[in-house]
Specification:
Blueprint lengths: L1 H9 L5 H12 L18 E2 L5 E5 L7 H4 L7 H12 L20 E5 L12 H17 L5 E5 L1 H15 L14 E4 L2 E6 L4 H4 L6 H15 L1
Parallel strand pairs: 2-3, 2-4, 4-6
Antiparallel strand pairs: 1-3, 5-6
């Protein structure tokens, strides 16, 4: 069950570097979050257990999910993501600032390839590989899943590895990531989009219209 998997993820301390980083972030928050109690643990996925669309990110943000306890919650990337999910009718509200704020996803599930906030948003290969089985198990538990939306190149590669580990061989050469990229992989369709980070959204590399188009395609394929 997803609940049991979530409990296992929350208790994980497998990567000493990430444990130290997430806990140091909690002990030394920026001024705007001073006085808040940080989650400072791994972050499970969340959303609709009957989801047909999985949105896969890289890892929780140091002062976002690592603070609030829910991936993409309480940071600018999440502001962009949840507003788009609401426009696509995959979320009941356009904002999310904390886990008890009433956000519900319909037909969608959100997770990260690495469950702890990493320094500089760059997990090491060994950390990535230790975390990978959590995604493998989520794919098995999301029995209605049809579409994986990879939020960035790291998530694209993580999705390919997860599908290969759980569903068998992939096409060769492996499909390349790109915004709007689309390819069948195992029982799923994999879609690519630039990550909704400030680096992309503030520069115009990723616009709401671009992201909406990818979500609209995901909804169409998931029917």
């Amino acid at each position: 069950m997803l609940a049991a998997l979530s409990a296992e993820i929350l208790a994980c301390r497998a990567c000493p570097r990430l444990v130290a980083w997430r806990e140091d972030a909690a002990a030394n928050p920026p001024a705007r979050f001073r006085g808040e109690t940080y989650h400072a643990r791994p972050i499970p996925g969340f959303g609709d257990p009957g989801a047909r669309i999985l949105l896969l990110g890289l890892a929780p943000a140091k002062d976002g999910g690592n603070r609030t306890g829910r991936v993409f919650t309480g940071d600018r990337s999440g502001d962009f993501l949840f507003a788009a999910l609401h426009r696509a009718r995959l979320a009941n509200q356009p904002t999310s600032i904390r886990p008890d704020d009433g956000l519900e996803l319909c037909g969608a599930y959100v997770a990260a390839a690495v469950r702890c906030a990493p320094p500089d948003n760059k997990p090491l290969p060994g950390e990535r590989d230790l975390c990978a089985p959590y995604l493998h198990r989520e794919l098995a538990l999301l029995a209605q899943l049809r579409v994986i939306v990879a939020l960035g190149a790291f998530a694209w590669q993580a999705a390919l590895r997860a599908v290969e580990a759980t569903s068998g061989a992939l096409p060769r050469p492996l499909p390349h990531f790109g915004h709007g990229a689309e390819t069948p992989v195992g029982p799923y369709i994999l879609l690519g989009t630039y990550h909704p980070s400030q680096q992309n959204t503030f520069t115009g590399r990723l616009t709401p219209e671009m992201f909406d188009a990818v979500l609209a395609r995901a909804v169409c394929l998931a029917r």
